[in-house]
Amino acid sequence: MDDVETRLGAALESCTDADMPVAAASMLDFCGDVLQLSLPHGNSRELTGILVEHFGECDLLVADHEIEVPRLFVSDMDSTMIGQECIDELADFAGIKDEVAAITERAMLGELDFGTALKERVGLLQGLAEDAIDRCLAERISPVAGARTLVATLRSKGCRTALVTGGFHHFADPIADLLGFERVVGNRLGVADGILTGSLVGPVSDASTKLTTLEEERDNLGDGARVLATGDGANDVPMIQAADYGFAYRAKPKARDAANGRINSVDLTAILKLFGIPESEWVEDVSAV
């Protein structure tokens, strides 16, 4: 604890130097070091940087108001609610995973335009049998630890949930059913006679789509509804920034830098802990909600 107190003192001094005096600070007993701060004024993302500097890449959430359970949860899918990038795994069935994965990585880092990169990758899948998607889902795709509990528990608290992905409805619809999301937004793969055409049907679901979905759902809830958003890549940045609680989950640098919440643990129930929801109130199965 002495080391923790030393780091806490150094962090508070850094806050003062940055003209962000802390009104109150205390250590919470959760995974070693969790800091609860009362900050009368200041930039939450600047404070996040100070905390990371002194406490390392721990799980954290910084807000300029009293933290409360959100009324809306909007999440990315690939590498956030599931541990894989669906298009990369699907590409493996066509023998081109490395080629497609390299494009995916650059798009998630923000080095490529997302829409252009998506169409390029989908084009490479032309001629693949549609039933490869079912095999991919069964053999390759699995939820992140704690994902189902996170969704079910938030819904038990009256939170609306939406899964918004730059991926595909072929994957997102069954994943949403498994995890308990109430709304799904994503891209649609073109299929003809059971074969992927290498094109998309309808508009591209991208960063602007994620933001628009968040705004629509928030407006439907009315004034004062707190919003949680989670994601890991550059195309998640607009919705992360628009949310009251924007979490970067084991994220790429652009998403991490945009967020006021960070999860470096594997298990997504870390978010429930940061909202102060005791384990006795966690719900394991959305069917119980």
TrEMBL record:
Catalysed reaction, written as an equation: O-phospho-D-serine + H2O = D-serine + phosphate; O-phospho-L-serine + H2O = L-serine + phosphate
GO molecular function, a single term: hydrolase activity
Name by which UniProt lists this protein: Phosphoserine phosphatase
InterPro entries: HAD-like_SerB, HAD-like_sf, HAD_sf, PSP
Lineage per the UniProt record: Bacteria, Pseudomonadati, Pseudomonadota, Alphaproteobacteria, Sphingomonadales
Organism: Qipengyuania qiaonensis
Cofactor(s) recorded in Swiss-Prot or TrEMBL: Mg(2+)
Enzyme class per UniProt: hydrolase
Hydrolase as UniProt keyword: yes
Recorded metabolic or biological pathway in which this protein acts: Amino-acid biosynthesis; L-serine biosynthesis; L-serine from 3-phospho-D-glycerate: step 3/3
EC number, UniProt record: 3.1.3.3
UniProt similarity note: Belongs to the HAD-like hydrolase superfamily. SerB family.
Keywords, comma-separated and alphabetical: Amino-acid biosynthesis, Hydrolase, Magnesium, Metal-binding, Serine biosynthesis
Pfam families: HAD (PF12710)
